[in-house]
């Protein structure tokens, strides 16, 4: 008598399912490059191995599926890494990040516990387009090697404790569209080389930058420039010009000095804050013809009639100048030459 083992179709089906599941597992595990996986696991072990932030970062699972990681669809190399928005992570930026050589986007942001310098290992990341190290406790200088990462389009180092000068090498980043270095402790002057930037969105406010605004910026064309709350001096009129494209220029709270009467404004200017400087001359009529939404020229040495059509900005916007007059300030004293005492 032959014994036919009774194989239920359900049993066969479940074998099939688990087999295909194993294939899928091994297949997805393969997608992540081992050296990328090792680098990421090292980052996890440095910044908080037991934190729920890294829950999905587990050995022998596809690192391309880990939260805050992404891979190139074709090469399956890690091209995106975003660590941060977390108060529990702590430590320095691990040098092993430099082994993720296919990274195009790298963020370490909103992490009070991130300390130490910007590591030189980042100089290996030649494919980086977007580097954001912002709102952390990073210290030390802005490294000049960043100027060699020539694919960078966005560089955000804002709200850290970075000090020292702005490296002139950053002007070699010919693809750069945004440079945010505001709210640090940067010193020294704005590099001469920044005259080569075209259409750059540039925010360097709330630092300790000093020295004259370089003459070379007459060639630059910023789409946005905010240098407020520094100690800049000299002729900042080089930032203006009828052919420039700036939508916003903020020099508030510096010590720049130039004759405003001679300035030609970019025709698309929507925001202009020149308050708390040593700017003299009078306000050009052209200002009233711009699509301005923000205007402040208070606390300068300006004189003469305010062009008509600027009253919506209120008297605060013109206060504490040498002798500005007319709405929204007090009317100008009409001085008629004919009745002037010296003619009598
Ligand atoms: C993480 O957890 C493991 C096991 O519970 C423990 O041995 C290790 O000390 C912990 N590491 C940290 C940095 O807390
Ligand atoms: C830097 O560290 C201090 C003290 O540890 C903390 O209060 C502050 O929020 C941190 N800064 C940032 C930007 O995270
Ligand atoms: C202009 O700037 C001054 C000084 O910074 C400030 O007090 C005032 O409120 C500002 N006015 C407007 C309209 O922005």
Automatic annotation (TrEMBL):
Signal peptide residue numbers:
1-28
Subcellular location(s) of the protein: Cell envelope; Membrane
UniProt keyword Ubl conjugation present: no
Q: Which Pfam families match?
A: LRR_1, LRR_8, LRRNT_2
Q: Which domain of life is it from?
A: Eukaryota
**GO CC term (a single one):** membrane
Task: Indicate the segments forming the Leucine-rich repeat-containing N-terminal plant-type domain, all copies.
Answer: 33-72
Keywords from the named record: Leucine-rich repeat, Membrane, Repeat, Signal
The text of the family note is: Belongs to the polygalacturonase-inhibiting protein family.
- Spell out the protein name for this chain: Leucine-rich repeat-containing N-terminal plant-type domain-containing protein
